[in-house]
Structure to design on (177 residues):
């Protein structure tokens, strides 16, 4: 029996970069200049145009060795830790044969918001805080009101939470605000 040693593939972090795009006067994407070993989200308008051609595209990524471009589909929902994807399965470039595990940096660009609100308890108002993720304040308010109703007497405000992550023994992370 022959023993074949397989090299463990390295894990590479692909940062989110803005790629230079070439467009027609009507705004249609006709060319891109990818940044090797990075990824970029495409605009809603470009997504619509790809969908009209029966192409399911949410983002692009580029091979770190040869710059070959790959598509990330619309339904791609990887597990995320602090905005970055967890290491994804191996990327195999069909053009140059390069392979690695990938972490897409800043995949989840949502912001942590804090909603401060009051409820009535008899004759007094009780203050509450609730945390939620959203892309902007308007979306955060929509999420808040979709989960709350008449029990909220007063929405004092919703704003980005200010805090930092602290390492806790056992490799857990705690958000301090």
């Amino acid at each position: 029996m022959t023993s074949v040693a397989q090299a463990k593939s390295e894990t590479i972090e692909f940062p989110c970069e803005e790629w230079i795009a070439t467009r027609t006067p009507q705004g249609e994407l006709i060319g891109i200049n990818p940044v090797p070993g990075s990824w970029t989200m495409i605009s809603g308008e470009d997504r619509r145009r790809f969908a009209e051609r029966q192409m399911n595209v949410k983002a692009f990524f580029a091979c770190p060795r040869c710059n070959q471009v790959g598509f990330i589909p619309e339904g791609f929902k990887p597990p995320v830790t602090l905005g970055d994807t967890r290491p994804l399965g191996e990327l195999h470039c069909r053009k140059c044969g390069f392979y690695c595990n990938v972490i897409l940096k800043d995949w989840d660009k949502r912001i942590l918001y804090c909603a401060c609100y009051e409820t009535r308890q008899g004759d007094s108002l009780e203050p509450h805080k609730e945390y939620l993720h959203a892309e902007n304040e308007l979306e955060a308010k929509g999420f808040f009101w979709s989960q709350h109703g008449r029990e909220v007497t007063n929405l004092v405000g919703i704003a980005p939470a200010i805090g930092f992550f602290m390492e806790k023994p056992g490799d857990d992370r705690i958000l301090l605000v």
About this structure: Residues 1-6, 173-177 have pLDDT under 50 and may be disordered. DSSP finds two helices and 15 strands in the chain. Residues 78 and 103 are 10 Å apart (CA to CA). The chain has two domains: 11-104, 111-176.
